[in-house]
Queue: 3 jobs
Job 1
Amino acid sequence: MTQHSLKSTCLPLSLFFLLGMLTHSALAAKPPNILLIVSEDNGPELGCYGDPYAKTPHLDQLAKQGVRFENAFVPYSVCSPSRACFLTGKYPHQNGQIGLATHKFALYQKETPNFVTLLKEQGYQTGLIGKLHVNPEDAFPFDFRAIRSANFNRREPVTAYASQAAKFFARTKDQPWFLSVNFPDAHLPFIQQANGRPAHPLTADDVKPMPWVGVDTPRLRKQVANYYNCMARLDTGVGLLLNELDKAGATENTLIFYIGDHGAQFPRGKGSVYEGGLRVPLIVSWPGKTHPGMVRKELTSTLDLLPTALAAAGREIPEELAGRDLTPLLTDAPVKNWRDYIFGFTTGSFPRNCYIQHSLRDERYKLISNPRPGTENLIADSYLDESHLHFVISGATAADQKTISPQTKQVFTRWSQPPRYELYDLQQDPCEWNNLAEDPDYTMVKTRLINALTKLQQQTRDPFLDPANLEAFVKEQLNNRDMKYRKQKDFRWSYLDSFANWRAEQ
């Protein structure tokens, strides 16, 4: 071959490799897709978190591919406030959604920046499959909506969520996208089997209640078994969804978040500020970015999802967001100056469950602040008093309570009529049985946490710091326990204006 022919052959090859390198660089520079998977009413009852009864192979595999966060929390353990928190990146008292959307609680301002509006400004296509459950809905202008109902009866099978996701993937073409998929499991009713899933349901003989529940009877075990059956069905749905992501060729450039929206609906779970209500699973997978199989133990929050997504999308993180970018925690590199405290809060979420509590925990200790001590905790009543109009089937009946230990009885009494403060050593007492708030050996810990909680409330302009705001809110809630407001088209809670004005003046 002549020198001329060698040059003629090499030139196109050089161009080929150059074009390949440019294409690779372009792909690397493309903003990632963002997939947010949300399940209902479940804590970290997953195989990858060490739960002995959970059958969750697909979520376990996602954890193996990504990073599992051992200490992840929601700021409020009821659906609407929790969802508003991760969608806006702000605490409930900052965004206004301090109760259930179905009871006319809402954001202070429709214009509140959120996952949808901020990513749309970055050129993202946006989609939602499943319920939103935050008011007003038009604050979240998704480009694609499907299965708008909560689907608690599970008439829509888990296959429908994957099918709708496939439709969304097909329409995005070369545009980056954000898709939130919200599964109905494991919300009550705990349905043993829906559309043939799970194929082999657990029974009461196969399980025991979570250790923080404090009650173990055959009746409750049946509820627990069906809770785990819901978790198995959820896991199937996640597997089908991730399979559609693979078929769309999008897995390699997708940042995946998986969370539960709050803890399970058992005593001292959903609605409370105990660990059973606030602690959730959080798994993050991002090929090429996450260190496979990593477990991080830092205190993390669902408030961190939005800052992380914005950073991944190449957008500056607004200073007013309460969360932090998780990117430094996605590998095994040491991280300095991470957060010291996690905040929790509840209002009870609707009038018949009204009760105000705040919590603050560090790596070891947990403070619960009850600003109206000695008054009836209507949230606890919904689990412990069968005469409560909203008593839940997964609560503890009078017959169940005849079987409990003296320690559990004391804990339930404290929950029903809380003292001013509760303090728990989570290292020695992870289920929060022993209140140390009046133990003189823990005075310094208690004082430190009270001061830290007050400082956080001041910094975030929490209206409930002002006793006048707190009492006005409770009075209005208790005066509306007949719930006639639900049929009043133009009804508006007064806090939506008074709290917003108070925050503006601080």
Note: The first strand starts at residue 33 and ends at 39.
Job 2
Amino acid sequence: MTAVALSARGERAPNTADIDPAVMQRLAEGPPEGPVPSLRCQGTTAPDLPEQELTPTGLTPRTQQLRDEMTAVFGDQPLGGFAPGGVSQGHGAESTHYSGRGVDVFFRPITEENRRDGWVLAQWLIAHADDLDIQYVIFDDKIWSAHNSRGHWQTYDVPAPANDILRHRDHVHVDVLRGEPQ
């Protein structure tokens, strides 16, 4: 997924000579039926992970690392769901945005090209879930969870009112594990 993302930006990508070209093409173009999740990966919930405090950026250090890694591969992207000092409204009651563990990456307007780009990011995120301590990825009515031992994408249970924003059709939501108090 890193090679696909870097190639799409015209950047130098890692050597993929040992990967079947058909696999690389499917990852780059998506499945023939249109932009949908095509990767599944198992994640872990890292039981010994320490809890982190919100920093002045509005993100925890773990979330900032995630942001930095995304930027290194995908370049600057329109982001939201956090603000310096943190956010205290605009999300559901249990949202990880309030604790600085959630980031939204926008793909607006909703077009087939933006959906495909969103799926490239979403699949890159789950491919790196263990390295980046990712807990959830939500996009386009689907959710992936590190808590699902089978690593499958599931249908996202959209809260009412089920609009494009709450369905995550115009943005990829990603959040990191909270960790445990030490």
Note: The mean pLDDT is 88.
Job 3
Amino acid sequence: MNRLALFDCDGTLVDSQANICRAMEACFVAERLDPPGRDAIRQIVGLSLVPAIAQLLPQADAALHDSLAEGYKRAFWAMRADNALDPEPLFDGIVEAIDTLEANGWMLGVATGKSDRGLHLILEHHGLKHRFVTLQTADRHPSKPHPSMVELAMAEAGAAPHTTAMIGDTSFDMAMALNAGAHAVGVAWGYHSAQELTAAGAAHVVPHARALAAHLEAL
């Protein structure tokens, strides 16, 4: 069986919080609603769009959740069309971690709440798309923490649950990993705290990307 290192994207590979917060604020304002605070928005990063909005506005009905989700997409793509997006940098040490894992024989993949289009654009921007053998997004799966993304990634990579590590910065990533029977590996540089990751079942919380390969080998 192959070994698979499956990465979340936002908050794990790239720091995309500024654009996510701006688009979320814009879609609430367009509906004449008070936007949630940025701490609240960061807590839902990683979920698919409609479930994320439902968590931010639980008292609203499904029609408003859907309308806000469409408004979020419009706001995000308008920022992109206007070249108004904030930088979405890779976290420090991510490229080195990918290089080391690949050299150690790990297959690499991504499982994210982003759309196919959004994921491909960010990976192409950073020159990383070719490094991943499997890319799973919200366009083709239920929202995290459903295990569907991990299960299909394992099938595409020829990996098994015991040879797969789901690497992410949120409790949703940890729960998804456990639901698929995979190892749950948290990262300390993202949007949920180490305490939240541990409470959600993380076997390890890695302090820095350069330490990631060593933690995975220890599994």
Note: The first strand starts at residue 2 and ends at 7.
